[in-house]
Amino acid sequence: MNPVKPSLRVAVVNLTSGGFSGGYVKYLRELVPRMRRDARVSELLVAGPHTTRDLVDWTWPATDERRRFATLRAHVSEWRPDVVLIPTARHAAFGDVPVVTMVRNMEPLVMPFSAPTLPERLRNVARYAAALQSSRRATRVIAVSDFVRDFLVERWAIPTSRVDTVPHGVDVVHPGLGRRPDAPDRMPEVFAAGSIRPARGIEDLLTALSVLRHRGMPTTLWFAGSPTPGAEAYFAHLRRTADELGVGGDVCWLGALDAQEMQWCFEASRLFVMTSRTEACPNTVLESMAMGARAVSTDARPMPEFFADTATYYKADDGVRLAEAIAEALHHETPVFRARLQASTRARASTFTWSRTADATLASLQRAVRLP
């Protein structure tokens, strides 16, 4: 008889002072149910701050951070987990229980001073310090891309043997279920999406639109996303820049969209453009591939790691090259080429599944407690 492998009592501690981003909520909603169903897990405790009570099993009081999370530590220690997963790149110790942390936000690590306001830059410095401490003190570290792993190993000297690369997944998309957002009647030729802040590099798109207009190829851009707190002035700067470049009328700023509206934009546009300067595991990249979108992207890591050969690349800050790539995609494309590209792009997206994310995450937790 084959020996029965022991199962784990796993505590997922979402160590944060406030709420969760949309991407993080998606991560929890996809990961936690899969972990609960897995035979390697006997019991699962999901803990978070009081502002997230609808997403977790147990919450600590608002005053707990000032008390160095004393209530949290006591509750988790009393629950007696075999391993603790902290997906937020912050550290907490629970006696001799192994702790696995996850690094999933690279902007504070490689571009901490790109934030639009001084308070946000200071918060980025604090995030950098917290991620460094958690990575050095954790039993194991989960990196959400090879780019993150290489940073941890090469810049922070985290031993390779302690780092596991576990990308996020993306949902399977059923075509035709999108819903058109409230927007002008014109169809989008180019679509871009993401929170609006300097590290997104949206200026590249505005420059490219200006170049295309001067070359007699005016191009419509729809952008989905809202400015992050403190980036309102940056957003106003973008709108002024678009007007000064003569392309203000070519850009439709959609604001935040829901999943159905995003799907409609991906499917209705002819091209998706990614201008971000740095990411960890970019959800919009995975979503664009799942939709079969043709893409032009910066060659900044980790974008090529995910797009592979399904995208055309340009160097950040080179709006002229971006314009050339957009023109090539929009005006020199056959239906046969587009169909083949959609098929290869969707095939590429199918390699990033939430089931694989959950499986690899549990394998990392097992390594932390040295189970077979």
Walk me through what this model shows.
This protein is an alpha/beta fold and 372 residues long. It has two domains: 177 residues, Rossmann fold (3-Layer(aba) Sandwich), CATH 3.40.50; 160 residues, Glycogen Phosphorylase B (Rossmann fold), CATH 3.40.50.2000. The protein is built from 13 helices and 13 strands. Strands 3-2-1-4-5-6-7 form a seven-stranded parallel beta sheet, with helices on both faces. The longest helix has 20 residues.
CATH domain class name of the largest domain: Alpha Beta
Low-confidence stretches: none
In CATH terms, the superfamily of the largest domain is: Glycogen Phosphorylase B
Examine the secondary-structure arrangement and name the CATH architecture of the largest domain: 3-Layer(aba) Sandwich
The main β sheet shows up as: 7 strands, parallel
Please give a handful of descriptors for the protein shown:
Rossmann fold; 2 domains; 16% strand; globular; alpha/beta; 372 residues
Question: What's the arrangement of secondary structure elements?
Answer:
Elements: E1 8-13, H1 22-37, E2 41-49, E3 58-60, H2 70-79, E4 83-86, E5 99-103, H3 107-110, H4 118-137, E6 140-143, H5 146-154, E7 163-165, E8 190-193, H6 203-214, E9 221-224, H7 232-244, E10 251-255, H8 259-268, E11 271-274, H9 283-290, E12 295-298, H10 303-307, E13 311-314, H11 319-331, H12 335-349, H13 354-368
Parallel strand pairs: 1-2, 1-4, 2-3, 4-5, 5-6, 6-7, 8-9, 8-11, 9-10, 11-12, 12-13
Helix pairs in contact: 1-13, 6-11, 9-12
